[in-house]
Amino acid sequence: MYKNSEGYPDPTAGTAYSNMQREQRHQQEAERLTAIGRLIPVLKQTAELAGFEVVGRITLRDKETGREYR
Q1: What is the tens place of the pLDDT at every residue in 14-53?
Q2: 5: pLDDT confidence band, cut at 50, 70 and 90?
Q3: How many domains does the chain contain in total?
Q4: Are 47 and 53 in contact (CB under 8 A)?
Q5: Can you give the pLDDT at residue 13?
Q6: What is the pLDDT of residues 53-63, one digit of tens each?
Q7: What is the rounded distance in angstroms from the CA atom of residue 27 to the CA atom of residue 68?
Q8: Residue 36 domain-assigned?
Q9: Which residues contact 54 (CB under 8 A, 6 or more apart)?
Q10: By residue range, what is the domain housing residue 58?
């Protein structure tokens, strides 16, 4: 439970803070997905220019979070 600066439980502020944190996480995830959406075509085009073709699923791991995107 979230407590205010005086140490008393403050559920309203705790809920608001949790909502802000959740919104921030969702925004960061949306930014990562946007970046991946731009990256995959570049990877495929680079392979094409080098004379190769991507034939399988590309898996990426976020170095910051460790999460894998398939």
Answers
A1: 899 999 999 999 999 999 999 999 999 999 999 999 999 9
A2: confident
A3: 1
A4: yes
A5: 87
A6: 999 999 999 99
A7: 17
A8: yes
A9: 43, 44, 47
A10: 11-69
Per-residue exposure over 34-53, b if at least 16 CB sit within 10 Å of its own CB, e if not? eeeeeeeeeeeeeeeeeeee
CA–CA distance from 31 to each of 10, 22, 28, 36 (Å)?
32, 14, 5, 9
Please name which of 24, 21, 20, 16 lies closest in space to residue 4, comparing C-alpha atoms: 16
Position 19 in a domain: yes
Q: What pLDDT sits at residue 4?
A: 81
Residue 48 belongs to some domain of the structure = yes
- Measure the CA–CA gap between 65 and 33, rounded to whole angstroms: 13
Q: What angle do CA 32, 34, 39 make, to 5 degrees?
A: 90
Q: Could you tell me if 24 and 17 are in contact, meaning their C-beta atoms sit under 8 angstroms apart?
A: no
Predicted pLDDT at 6: 86
Specify whether the CB–CB gap between 32 and 62 falls below 8 A: yes
